[in-house]
């Protein structure tokens, strides 16, 4: 383990994870970060901001025209969010599993939504639903110089 081994590309999948305004207000930012961190994923980007209407409209663009869209955009722009990029093997799918079902009442205990949320429109956290949407969302929320390049020393203790 003395030499640096190039990390397999499969370990470099990235997902966009965002603590929504209700998660920030309820002081669940640390809880969300803790779960991804202790699982072994690598944090490569993080910032706190109040999203503009423009970024919210693009981020949730797939839902434009649906009845809940105006309320959704209104809510996500109503306060501070914590936007993050996490990296690791199968992070998109695993991140969604850690977050739980969209409707918190259908989310299993042990998931973030299953442990901390009740209503659909207050489900604490967003996670990309595919590798393609992750790439789109990361490019929307972060510029390349906001994403850190570094090698965690624990990598060989997480990946075989
Ligand atoms: N949402 C809502 N009402 C609905 C459906 C969705 O308020 O009827 C919100 C909910 O907070 C959800 C977000 O819109 O997280 C985006 O919906 P999506 O289906 O993309 O769910 P997600 O990917 O967040 O699980």
Automatic annotation (TrEMBL):
Gene Ontology biological process terms from the UniProt entry: CTP biosynthetic process; GTP biosynthetic process; UTP biosynthetic process
Protein name, per record: Nucleoside diphosphate kinase
Top enzyme class: transferase
Regions crossing the membrane: none
Family indicated by similarity: Belongs to the NDK family.
Keywords for the protein's UniProt record, in alphabetical order: ATP-binding, Kinase, Nucleotide-binding, Transferase
Gene Ontology MF, one: ATP binding
Cofactor: Mg(2+)
